Amino acid sequence: MKAPSLSWLQGFLLASAVLISAVVIISGLAVGWFFEHHVLTHEEEHAVNVAQTQALQHLAPADFDLPRWSGKRKVFEAFSRELPGVFRIKVYDRTGRIVWSDEPRLMGRAFPDDPYLASALKGRVATVLGPPTGLEHVYEKTKGHVAEVYVPITFSQVPGVVGVIETYRDVTQVVVGIRRTQRLIWGVAGGMGLFLYFALALIVWRASVKEKKAITAIREAHERLAESHAALLAKTEELQRSNEALRKTQAQLVEKERLAAAGEVVVGLHHEILNPLTGILGAVQVLKQEGIAQPEKAEALAEAEAEIRKIERLIRRLARLRRTTGTPYVGDATMLDLERSCAEGERT
Questions:
Q1: Residue extent(s) of CATH 3.30.450.20 domains in the chain
Q2: Which terminus, N or C, of the chain has the lesser number of Cβ atoms within 10 Å?
Q3: How far from 70 is each of 26, 79, 105, 267, 270, CA to CA, in Å?
Q4: Distance between CA atoms of 118 and 228, rounded to whole angstroms?
Q5: Are 345 and 320 within 8 A, CB to CB?
Q6: Burial zone of 158 (CB within 10 Å; 0-12 exposed, 13-18 middle, 19+ buried)
Q7: Cα(336)–Cα(268) distance, rounded to whole angstroms?
């Protein structure tokens, strides 16, 4: 089963918590390292200057050679009095054996597993800050923290390192102060980090809420727009159907109007032309009769000619027809009054 992914707000809060915690921890460790480095540097400079200077003034290469140790060496006691603040001194020969110490029980002993002593016997100054828990700390374990400085001693008349002087300074209170400062820094930085974290969380949370509201508003607007678009499409389709029905109705009305106009024209022509033709046919029938007198023939021909002239005038006047005038015919039917229509067309 796939684990649910974090939202950007959760990811930001987690990343902020990790970053602020890392900054707080690193700042405390950095301050602690800085002070410890400062203490080590100070102890090293002080011990090296004093030890090498006092060694050149009060010691000789033979003082670091003890094939057979016997009695106390007054020269080292005088040397130790020149190192204030040091609670333990160990003097090693070139083989790493203690030839003198302010703790007599250490004289003649060797600690071959001490890497800092081995480094000093090669000519490098070694400085250590920490609790005395090593095998070489036989009588110093009661101290909380000590600063050890291994100073190689050389003389111009003898090649190489003739011995090493190791000094112990009790820095328990200094380390306690460093730890207290470190905890104070962690506390202050942690408090400020928490304040910053919650302030950022509040700001980002508000921004997240606003973003969610904006997204919701945009989504709702999009949905309303989609609904409006769908409604518009429906109305457009309905309008298209209405327009199509209107066009069909309009076409039907136009067709009906055309049929009605044609009907009026037909009725008008039927009235204006058929009646004269009936008169003509009547005159022709009269002319067909046998034994008809000459005056009656002349009258029939005159009537036929008059009706034909009437039809001729009507046909000629139709070309100038501009307006139509209807008149009731029979029942609901109307006919085109050709006489009046042609007369009105001639006047216009």
A1: 8-170
A2: N
A3: 53, 19, 13, 166, 169
A4: 89
A5: yes
A6: middle
A7: 5
Contacts of 200 (CB under 8 A, 6+ apart): 16
- Residue at 43: amino acid letter: E
**CA–CA gap between residue 341 and residue 302 (Å, rounded):** 27
d(CA 149, CA 164): 10
DSSP H or E run through 244: helix 172-288
Quick one: 8-170 is in which CATH superfamily?
A: PAS domain (3.30.450.20)
What is the model's pLDDT at position 313?
Answer: 74
User: Would you say 63 and 78 are in contact if contact means Cβ atoms under 8 Å apart?
Assistant: no
68-104: pLDDT as tens digits: 444 455 556 666 666 677 888 888 988 899 888 888 8
Angstrom distance (rounded) from CA 125 to CA 122: 9
What's the pTM value of the predicted model, to 2 decimals? Answer: 0.52
Average pLDDT taken over every residue of the chain:
77
Chain segment 148-184, per-residue pLDDT in tens: 889 898 888 888 899 898 888 888 887 788 778 878 8
